[in-house]
Design a protein that fits this description.
The protein is built from 12 helices and 12 strands. By secondary structure, the chain is of the alpha/beta class. The protein is elongated.
Length: 324
Amino acid sequence: MKINLLTIGPDNTTGFRKHLEELSKLINKGNFLAVKEKYAAKTLPKIMKIKSTLTIIGGRNWIKRNHKILEKIPGKKGILYTSPLAQAEISNEEIANLKTYFSWLDSKKIDYLFFSSKSLAERFDRDDVYHLPAPSITDLNLFKQKKKVPKTNTVGLINNKARHKNILNTIAGVSLSSKTKEFIINGLNEEYEDLLKRFGLKKRTKNVGFLSNKRYNEIMLSLKLSVHISFSESYCYSVFKAMAVGTPVLVSKAIDWVKIKDLIINDLRDHEEIAKKIDYVLGLSKADYIKLSSKCQKNAMQSIENNNKTSKKVIEKILRLHDQ
């Protein structure tokens, strides 16, 4: 089966998988293949059968373990690297991966290296390095829009609790908020539980645990405010999803596509600033909250439309070069 584009990524529910899956939908004849097993022996025959003009592979440890399959993949191929430098440095492992992917590029083991971070892509003056931001086709008409202002001042911290998410400073900031009546979080470890209690936030906290996509969307609609004040982000689909339904989200400057000044935390270590911004949003009049909600929707949709345009342009350029 001959197609133009194949994307390959992990079989999970992360934004990384979504980035790759949505990339495949930008091109009419694209396909996404999920890697279900730890080793790629079962996946390789499927990859070879597809015979794509361009294959984009998610840069994670499975491909490092199975790098010998690269020479067997038909057509041109590239690695997608989604971590900006700050996030890569926090994880440490991602810095080592970056070195590996460049060695593959230099040795022609792969043809392209794709970065979700525009600033990182721009550091390299190479024709085989491209900025490929997070797109979305699926989400453009997926979400129910907020039809009314939530009655309860509910604040949510809904993410995977990775190191770069700045969880503890965020919790400390929420604890200082005088207007937060309920704090929803999806998963807690013992350290978080202990701090919630010591910060006086425990009685206001509801742990909803792992969320299905349906339940996730329901919670995003019910929140009056979400908080996602990360040290570093590549795009952050969870912020996009929240804002796309009209839920305001407090963010750090790491999520650079959010352009609403009232939602940006300047010092992500400043608990007082976090609390003041939370109370500002929760204290808005109904009319002002609806205006902010509308701004969030427009900001989110504009950001994803820009990303779709950029990514499609890059992929089509490469396909034109090689699809002869």
